[in-house]
Each structure stands twice: as C-alpha cells, then as structure tokens.
Specification:
- The complex is a heterodimer of chains A (380) and B (571).
- Chain A is 39% helix and 16% strand.
- With 380 residues, chain A is an alpha/beta fold.
- In chain A, strands 1, 4, 5, 6, 7, 8, 9, 10, 11 and 12 form a ten-stranded mixed beta sheet that branches. Chain A has a two-stranded antiparallel sheet with strand order 2-3.
- In chain A, α3 packs antiparallel against α10 and α11 crosses α15.
- Chain B has a single domain, classed as Methanol Dehydrogenase, Chain A.
- A five-stranded antiparallel beta sheet of chain B has the order 1-19-18-17-16, with no helix packed on it. A five-stranded mixed beta sheet of chain B has the order 2-33-34-35-36, with no helix packed on it. Chain B has a four-stranded antiparallel beta sheet with strand order 3-39-38-37, with no helix packed on it.
- The longest helix of chain B has 10 residues.
- The radius of gyration of chain B is 22 Å and the shape is globular.
- The N and C termini of chain B lie far apart (48 Å).
- The chains are: A alpha/beta (380), B mainly beta (571).
Chain lengths: 380, 571
C-alpha cells in the first residue's frame, strides 16, 4: 500500500471510528426500545482473524471456526453486524501492524495479553480461551511423568516447546512433524506411539477425524499454556469494555463452542520430570530433588535449588534484567504479602506468564528454602 | 567440516592455472558465454561466473571519476528493499523491482527507454510467509531468455527479445514458508537455484531446471539423508527439517566443472533438538548447514563441503556468496574461493581440493577465539553460545552477520576484496518459534546492539592471500550496500544513508559521492555502450530487516525513506 493510499484509508477508518463512537453514544443515551428505531444502521464489528486456521477461523467452509462463531456472538451482543477481516497470522506482529494498527479492523482475535507482543500499542479483552500443548495418547496409555514416555515414539511439532522439552532427554525418540495433522496421521498409521502437540488442533482432529479414539491431555509448564484474548488498538477502551461485558455474558456459549470444536478443557497436567532443566543436560531419568538436610543453612540450600530449578527464567542467583521476572524485587513489589504471594505462585503457577505449577515437583520444605534464599537477596 | 558424499575426497588434479580464471570455455550456455566474454557487458549477478563483481572497463577511472554525472534515472515501480543487480547485454539492460518482483524491465541501456515490461502474477498473500522483505535480486540471462525467481516459489523464463513468458516452474510452496529471492546460476543447459526458508522446517536443496523447457533435471538435498555421509551428524530424525537453505547466488568454475553454494543455518533454532545444545557437540555438527558446498553441475552430486559454523546456534547463516580467484598463497598462484561469512570469519580455501587455507575474523568476533583449520571448527567460547535456558550476552557478531547478503567484490589488479561489514553484537536466548494455530507466536526478539569501537558498519579492503586489511572506512550505520570494482582502480558502493561513493581501490580515498535519496543495499554494476562507460546502482532502502534492528533500525529508517530508483552515471 502506498503512503497516500494508506493515509486515506486511515482517514476513512478514523472517520468510521468516530461515526461508530457517536452512534454508540447515541445508542447508550437512548433506551433499548429506541435503539431499534435508530435511523442509521450500526457499523459492523470488524474482527481480524486468520483466513486459513481451523479450528479457530476459516474464510471458507463450514464450520467457520471457534473465533468466528465467538465473534458473531459478541457482535450480536453489541447490536452490530459481524464482519470478519482476513489477515494471515504467520508473522504475528506484522499482521497486527498491517491490519489492526492501520484501522482495517476493530479487534484482532487470538492474541496473548502479553506486553512483549506489541508494547503499549495494544490493549486486550479478557481471555476468551485457554490453550496450549497437550499429550495425545491412545486409550489405556497412562503418562504421569516424562519417564513414562521413555522408549515411546512421540510425535512433536517442529520448533515447538514439546520438541525442546523432549530434546533434553535421550530416551524418548521423537518423530518430527510440521503440523498437528501430520502428527495425528502418524498416530493412526502407527508411526508414532503418542503425540505431544498443539492441544486445540489435536482435540479438533481427534473429534472430527479420529472418532475420539485418543485422550487429549493439556500439559502444564513453561511455554506450554497461554490465554488468547482479543486485541484492540490502545485508545479503544470503550469498545474493549463492551466486548469484555459480552464475553462475561457469553460464558456458557464459549463452553459450548469448546465442546463443539473438541477443545480440551481439563486443567493442565504437570508432568513429573518436566520441570525445566538447569543449564546442564540431565540424566535420562530425572532424579527426585534431594531432600535437604534440616536447615543448617536454609538459604544456602535454597540458593542451590533456585539455580537448579528457577534460574533459567529468573536468572542465575536471581540476577535478572527483565523487571517483570526479577525476584529481587519481590519485597519492593509485595511488601508484607511477599511470602503469601510466593507460596501461592509456586503452588498454583501463573501459566499465562510462563510460570509453571511446581506442586509435586518440589516439596514444601524446598519451597521454604527457596523463599529463605530470595529473602536474602532482596534489593533495598 | 570437510565431507564428501561421493565416498572419497574428490581431489581434482589439474595444473594450476597461470592466468585469472577464464570466463569462457564453451562448456557453458553459449549465448551467456559470449555475453560474459564481452567486457562491455554485465551479464550475470556477479558479472562473471567467479562472482568477482570486477569489470575490466576503465574509461571511468581514479583520475576522472570526480566528473561523473547522471546519464539517466529510472523508477522501477516498487518501493523498499530493491536489491537487484541489473544485467546489461549488448546495450540492453534487464532489471527487476522488489515486491514479487512487481516488474521486470528491458531498457535501452543508453537512454533508459523501455523495450518491454513484464508483470508476473505473484500470489498476493505471499507477504505473510516472507521472513525479511519483498526483495528480488534480479534476473539471469541464457540463450535468448531472461530467467528470474518469484517470491511465491516459481522460476520463470521470458523471451529476452519481447518479454513474453516462455515457461514457469514451481520450485517450492511458499505456504510452507519457502520463498525465492535470488536469480538462478546458469551453467550449460541448466538454471540452478536454491530457496529461502531455513527456519521454517525446510530441508534445503539446490535444484537444476532445463533452460529450454523448465523441467527439473536434478535436486540435491543440502542436508544428508540416511545412508549418506554426514547423516549421523544429525540427532534422531532432525535431518528431515534441517534447514541449510541455499537462498543466495551460486558461482561456477568451468575449469573443474564445479558450482559453489553457501547454505543457511540449520533448523530448528534450538540446537539441542539436532545436536547437544552445547559447545561440546562431538560428531553432532549438523553437516550441510552453514556450509560451502561444491557440486557437479551436470549431476548435482556434492564433491565436497566445508562447514563454517558447526552445530550452529546464532543465526550464522553461511549462505554468503563464494568469490573465486587465483591468488598467490605462499608465493604460489592458488585457485581459491573467498567467503566473508555471517559468523565473522573471512574464509579462504583451495577450491580445487576443498581444503581451508585461512580463516580470520574480518569484524570483531567473540563467539569463537579462532578457527582451527585442521578440524575445520571454530574454537568456541561456551559462554557465548545461547541455549533454551541460558541467555548469552554481548555476542559478536550479531545475526546480521559480519556480512549479510550485500555482495563483496574482488579486484585482481589490487588483489583486494571489498567487503561491506557490520559491527553489531547481540544478546540471545533460544526460544521456540512454532506457528501455533489460533495463538500468535510469542518469543524473544533477539536484541541486537551496537558493536564496540564507535562504528556500526565498515567498508574494508582485505587481501585474501594474507588476510591483511589494506584500508577501511568506518560507517555510522550497518546494513550498507554491496560493492563493485573496476580496472580503473575504483570501488563503487552505496551506503544505507543513500550516499553512492567512488573510492580509490588501492587506498580507499573517496573520489566522488552523490546522495541518491534512499538507502542502498544492491551492488552497483558497470557497462559500456557504443564505447561509453556507465555505472549503475539501484537505490531503495530495505524496510523489513531494519524493523528487527531495534534502535539502530530506527536510525536506518529515519535516515532515508524507502525508494526504488535506478541511477545511471557516466562522464
């Protein structure tokens, strides 16, 4: 698009936004009965989505995908016609830059509410969907730990978090695939014994192609689970708030849509042995964390545990340039709630932020040792 | 790494040529051969098969270049990332614009008047699959045809006389993240070409097409499969998606009937998937990736290869062009290739035997303390190797490379190679990059930081025989344009701020400059029509790559707007 055309398009969109905002004000000012009689039709609710991304969105065919059905439901609650705007999401930031931020749509669905994504250019709705990687197992196979996968051929997607996780072990032969479809095919054709792939796709394919032959179990852990939301250009707070209200009201519909598309709904399972490795590669069988001898020096034991288990994200010795991950600021940030926030976080995780649930991986005693260590390194 | 998939080292026992590489042997495409032998032409990307970007023309020289004036200019009709080297054959210029390409033109090389224009049908939705920008590096000429690659995965042939399409062959599927940006190498009856997409699950390949019909004649995977030597340098089934794409231009030595290609980084980015993930990678070197491959153009068989970065982890794509020359090594004229590698080392190797001669840093390098010529391995600093769980900081050079695609040139008269280099460093932690359905990729961007020493780019003149730097010019920004050199003792290059320079090839002294108004990436060319010499360069600043260069990228974008203008100068 040339600069001139882009500028004109932006001008048109800005005008459209002003119109839509005006009509919104008018609508709100009127009573519900008057709304139906409004002279001008409400402007479309334009939602950017990927044109070729089932089970989430598809420009052609039926069903149209979870996001499109949800978009229609939200538009209906806003009292506006629904208009999908198709934008491939292969390169995410570029897609947002070229569509949403140029005013070609009002919202972009399927983005994580993460400041890393586009900084302050975006604001987000409430999460509309939790999604992430899942184990796909034939009925009867039980996997509770990474060791349970030893010797099994596991299909993983190229350059995915499960591939990175299993690459830390030598005893799980991986079958590398480029798509969930390929993984499910390998399972069916007995080229793989299990798959560890993108969960919603696995659930959808299991439902539509495999007759529900497999169990799809979401897995917890770093880089495993996310929450998808709808992004808006910053400055679109009124629309975002309306959409949030619609999402609240649509909770039962969202649940029904998840069922329709076969998305896994279970709480993600924390695999034993899947805790992130420290810098060195681990032996084939992950050792159980050593029970520390009763605190001669609890902080010193915590220091070692921290560097073994936490430093990959929070930095060796808790030295961390990224402020959000800097655990030397916990006192500063939480004050007297420090201990409570720490215990709650390690035992529940903050999955959307990449923080796994460490329950069952580390003991209570070990949590307290790490806490003692963190207390010893707080910045004033 | 030195490896030979044919079973034994293909040592070619030919008498060492006493003269510079001959351009014509009659074994190549005859029309191209004639065109290349004519000093007035610029008949292929690097002017000749050796990719030297050297012209014997000297009407314009170090005594009179100060009087260079605009002869004509031409808008190629597409803005940003104009990276093409125009070809000039017998008074006709052939050039592509960026964006697909959007346009292919044949022009009167004296006046710029359009002879024909071809607008290929390029898939409109290709942009989301392209890593870096909508670039096109120009066309190739062969037996009355103009051949060029399309971003959406096609190789297309036109009638050079009238621009009518003769055939169009699919090389790759762009929806797999594989695209084409460079012109093919023409050898005999074949157009030889690779593709981009090393990060997105591709297994790199070099493919040959029949110039007459467009039919595929051979395809050689850059990454060895089961049963091929080197397959055991890949962990598990990782070779299947091992990257090693050959996305830039090839070179050809008719004397030994060998073509040379660089290959990109291995995939996926996390080396633990395909190697050990540490500096102690043993035999898991990921053969075929970040390498130089020597192949037989008739069969596609690999003769030998030399890996520049083993078990690569930094985006040190080894795709950089191979420049062939015969230079004195220890007093003996030796057939070499030289390569200014992304990993910061300037490699010189005997191109007949595939044996390294020297490898020295040409930019500040700290990921390795040196390069062991015997084992063909970098001596790594383990602290500079990023991992999934470890952020390595201040790694030099950055993913931009000591040099990126912008071409170097070599002047046999000065014995110097002219390299546009980048002095940038990076912090890097590996992260998975899988496109997830319904969820945007969320990963770390690689932070790229200014290098040390107060300059970010350099034009440097290096003697490949000695690895000594003869002279250099510091530049305030990286990502500067390619170079061209002439028998008139001149070096031409454009910088990212849009200034086109003519320098004394021996001393680096600036003799002429002109502001062309948009950042320059493409390499300049020179040619003569009716006895008059011209110098041409396509200006048109990149948009894609500066977008991932942080603060430095902002400076690049602030320096000039995008552009798309060909400038032609003469005395």
């Amino acid at each position: 698009m040339t600069g001139g055309r882009a500028a004109r398009a932006r001008g048109r969109q800005a005008a459209a936004r002003r119109r839509s905002f005006l009509s919104l004000v008018v609508a709100l000012a009127s009573c519900l009965a008057a709304k139906a009689a409004a002279a001008e039709p409400a402007p479309s609710f334009r939602l950017c989505a990927d044109p070729d991304n089932l089970p989430f969105s598809a420009a052609k065919g039926e069903p149209p995908g979870f996001y499109i059905e949800l978009g229609r439901a939200i538009a209906a609650r806003l009292g506006r016609p629904f208009e999908p705007v198709w934008e491939p999401t292969y390169f995410a930031r570029r897609a947002v830059r070229l569509s949403l931020l140029k005013g070609r749509c009002d919202g972009f669905i399927g983005l994580p509410d993460e400041p890393d994504l586009m900084g302050t250019k975006l604001i987000f709705s409430k999460p509309v969907l939790a999604l992430g990687y899942a184990l796909v197992l034939p009925q009867g196979m039980s996997v509770k730990s990474l060791a349970d996968l030893a010797g099994r051929r596991v299909a993983v997607q190229y350059a995915s978090s499960p591939q990175n996780l299993l690459a830390t072990r030598d005893d799980v032969p991986m079958v590398t695939v480029l798509s969930p479809e390929e993984a499910m095919r390998d399972l069916t054709e007995a080229k793989a014994d299990a798959a560890f792939i993108w969960g919603p796709s696995a659930g959808w394919l299991n439902k539509t192609k495999s007759g529900g032959a497999y169990e799809v179990i979401p897995i917890a852990g770093p880089h495993m689970q996310w929450q998808a939301a709808i992004a808006f250009a910053s400055g679109e707070t009124p629309l975002r708030d309306q959409v949030d209200a619609a999402i609240d009201a649509l909770a039962p519909s969202i649940d029904a849509l998840m069922t329709k598309y076969g998305f896994p709904k279970d709480t993600p399972l924390a695999l034993a042995g899947a805790e992130p490795a420290a810098a060195e590669s681990r032996p084939a069988t992950a050792p159980q964390p050593v029970r520390a001898t009763p605190a001669v020096d609890s902080a010193a034991a915590g220091h070692k545990l921290f560097n073994e288990n936490c430093s990959h994200c929070h930095g060796p010795d808790a030295v961390q340039g990224e402020r959000r991950r800097n655990l030397r600021l916990l006192q500063h940030r939480y004050g007297e709630d420090f201990d409570q926030v720490f215990m709650n976080t390690v035992t529940h995780g903050r999955v959307t932020k990449g923080m796994p649930n460490w329950s069952g991986v580390l003991t209570d005693e070990q949590f307290h040792e790490i806490l003692a260590y963190l207390h010893s390194v707080q910045e004033p | 790494m030195l490896r030979n998939r044919m079973g034994s080292l293909a040592v070619v026992t030919l008498a060492v040529a006493a003269t510079a590489i001959s351009h014509g042997t009659g074994r190549a495409d005859e029309a191209l051969d004639r065109a290349v032998q004519n000093d007035n032409n610029w008949a292929m990307y690097g002017r000749t098969y050796d990719n030297q970007r050297f012209s014997p023309l000297k009407e314009i020289n170090d005594q009179n270049v100060g009087g260079l004036k605009l002869a004509w200019a031409f808008q190629v009709g597409a803005l940003r990332s104009n990276e093409a080297s125009p070809l000039v054959i017998d008074g006709t210029m052939y050039i592509t614009s960026s964006s697909g390409p959007k346009n292919v033109f044949a022009l009167d090389a004296k006046t710029g008047a359009i002879k024909w224009r071809f607008q290929p049908d390029v898939a409109e939705d290709v942009q989301p699959y392209v890593c870096c920008d909508l670039d096109s590096r120009g066309v190739s000429f062969a037996s009355g045809k103009i051949l060029f690659s399309q971003l959406d995965g096609f190789l297309t042939a036109l009638d050079a006389q009238n621009g009518k399409q003769l055939w169009k062959s699919k090389i790759v599927d762009y929806k797999d993240g594989e695209t084409n940006t460079s012109p093919p190498l023409i050898v005999k009856d074949k157009a030889i070409i690779g593709f981009s997409g090393g990060e997105y699950g591709a297994r790199g390949a070099i493919q040959a097409y029949d110039i007459a019909s467009g039919k595929e004649l051979w395809k050689t995977w850059t990454i060895p499969g089961p049963g091929e030597p080197g397959n055991d340098t890949w962990k598990g089934d990782s070779w299947q998606h091992g990257g090693g794409a050959a996305w830039y231009v090839g070179s050809y030595d008719p004397k030994t009937n060998t073509i040379f290609y660089g290959t990109s980084n291995p995939g996926p980015w996390n080396p633990a998937v395909r190697s050990t993930g540490t500096s102690d990678f043993g035999k898991l070197t990921n053969a075929g990736s970040s390498s130089t491959l020597a192949l037989d153009p008739d069969t596609g068989k690999i003769k030998w290869e030399i890996q520049s970065t083993a078990a690569e982890a930094w985006d040190y794509d080894g795709v950089n062009e191979l420049v062939l020359a015969d230079v004195p090594i220890n007093g003996q004229k030796t057939p070499i290739y030289m390569k200014a590698d992304r990993n910061g080392f300037f490699f010189v190797a005997n191109r007949d035997t595939g044996k390294l001669i020297s490898a020295q840093p040409f930019v500040p390098v700290n990921w390795a303390k040196g390069f062991d010529l015997e084992t063909s391995r970098a001596i790594e600093d383990p602290a500079k190797r990023p991992r999934m769980d470890y952020k390595a900081t201040d790694i030099c050079p950055s993913w931009m490379g000591g040099k990126n695609w912008q071409p170097i040139s070599f002047n046999p008269m000065t014995g110097l190679a002219y390299i546009p280099s980048n002095n940038m460093c990076q912090d890097m932690q590996l992260t998975d990059i899988q496109f997830r359905r319904g969820m945007f990729y969320l990963g770390n961007d690689f932070a790229v930081n200014p290098g040390h020493g107060g300059y970010l780019g350099r034009l440097e003149a290096i003697d490949p025989a000695t690895q000594k730097m003869a002279w250099h010019i510091d530049l305030p920004l990286p990502w500067n344009g390619g170079t061209m050199t002439t028998a008139g003792n001149l070096v031409f290059f454009g910088d990212i701020e849009g200034i086109f320079h003519a320098l004394d090839a021996k001393t680096g002294k600036e003799l002429w400059r002109m502001n062309l108004g948009s950042g320059i990436g493409a390499g300049p060319i020179t040619f003569a029509v009716d006895g008059k010499q011209y110098v041409a360069v396509l200006a048109g600043r990149a948009e894609g790559p500066p977008a991932f260069m942080g603060e430095v990228g902002k400076k690049i974008m602030a320096a000039t707007p995008e552009g798309g203008t060909l400038f032609v100068f003469s005395l």
